[in-house]
Amino acid sequence: MPPFISTLFISVFLFFLVTIVITYLDEFIGKGLRTFDLIKLFGYAWISLIPQCIPLAVLLASIMSFGNLAENYELAAMKSSGLSLFKIIKPVFVFIVFLAATTFLFNNFILPVVHLKFQSLLYDIRQKKPTVNIKEGIFYNKIDNYALRVGKKSANKDTLKDIFIYDHSAHQGNNVQMYAKSGKLTTTADTSALVLMLRDGNRYEEVVNQSGSAPHKKPLAQLNFKQLQVNIELVDFKLKRTDENQFKGHEEMMNIWQIDSVADSTKRLLNKRFYELERQSGLFFYGRTSATVNKLNKQKTIPVRQFFDSLSPNDHYRSIENALNIARSAASYIDSAEQNEKSESASIDSMLVEWHKKIVVCFACIILFFIGAPLGAIIKKGGLGLPVVVAVFFFLAYFILTEAYTSLAYEGTVPVWQAMWAPLFIFAPISIFLTYKAAKDSAIFDVTIYYLWIEKLFKKKKRA
Q1: The dihedral of CA 396, 398, 402, 405: what is its sign?
Q2: What gap in Å lies between CA 237 and CA 192, rounded to an integer?
Q3: d(Cα 117, Cα 96) in Å, to the nearest integer?
Q4: What pTM does this model have?
C-alpha cells in the first residue's frame, strides 16, 4: 500500500502539472480569480486524473513490492516452503480485483459529476474578463461604455493624477466627459463596481434632444467640483456561473447507461433521416424502376422519348431546366444529409469511446499487475531505481498505444471496441509470458545467460 499510494500521488501530480496547469495557465492569469474558485477547479481536475493514473500506480507498486521481496530473498523463502508464485500473488490479486471494481464504480458514478463541475467552472473562468489594468498615458477601454486615461499613478497604484473619463453609458455618443487633477481608485466589497473618487475637476455633458430646444442646438451642462464620486459597474469582470444542465449532454458527464440510451436514440434518428433522404431524393424508387416500366407498358402510355419529341422547343428547354434544377436540389440535399450523418456518427463514436474507456481502465489494472509482479520477481530489485525505469517504459508503451488507437477510433478508421481493447490484447500475452517465466524462476534479464548462450553458439560454429 505505501508504494501504491505514493506512486499514485506522484503520477497524479505530474499529470496535473502537464494537462492542467501548463495547458490552462493562460486562462487563469490576470483575471483576479478568488482563491476558493481556483481551489475548487484544481480539486476537480485532481480527482478527474486519478483513474487514468491508477494503472501506472499498480504497475510501479507491484514491481517495487515483489522486487523488494525477491531482493531480500523473502520470495525465495516462501517458494522453498512450498508456496507457488500464484499463491504468493493471490492476496494482492484479490486487492487488485477489488481496486478495479472500485475504479469502475468511480468512473461510472463519481467521475461524470466531477467532469461536469470542472468543465462548467473552467468555461465560466474562460468567459471572465481580465481584471482592470489601467496604464499611464494610455486610454483604457476594456470596461463597457467607458474610456479612462490616467496621467500618473502612485506607487501603490490607488492614487491617480490627470484623470480623463468618457462616459458612453447613455449610448448617445461621447456626450459626458470628466476631467480631474487627482483621484483615488477603489472597488466595492463584492468587487461589482469600480469607485473613482475625483478631486478638483470638471464634468461636461451635452444634453441631447432637450424639449424646447432647436434640433441643431445642444445645450451644454458644466459642473465644477471639489470632490465627485463615480461608480462604474464591473458586471462583466465578475465570475458568472452558468447553469450546469447545459453541459450534461457531453459523454464525459454521463454514466454507461446514459451513454447507451443517448447513442441508441442517435442511431435511430440517423436511420430515420436516411429513410427520409431516400424518400425525398427519389432513391427509394430506384429499386423499382423495372416494375414501373412494365406497368407503363401494360397501360400503353406514350414512351418518354416520344413524349419529348412531341414538345415544342420552348417546352423542351423548360423541361430540361426543371429536371436539372430537381437534380441539383436533390444533390444539395444529399450533401447536407451526408455532412449531418458524419457529424452524428462522430458523436456516436465519441460516446462509445467514453463507454469503453470507463471499463478498459479497470482491466488495465489487472493486466499491468500481471506484468509488474512477475517483473519484480525476475528483476529482484526494489526501491526507486531499476523498477521505476522498467515501469515507466511499460506504461509509456501502454499510454502511447492507447492514445494512438483512440485517435483511430475517433477518426472511424478502426471500430471503437477494437481500438479501445487493442492495447490490452497486446499486453495480455506479455503478462502471461512474464508470469510463466517468473513461476519457473527464469532469469530473462540476466545478461550473463545471454552472454554464455552466444559464446556456446560461436563455439559450435568453430567446431563445425
Answers
A1: positive
A2: 8
A3: 29
A4: 0.71
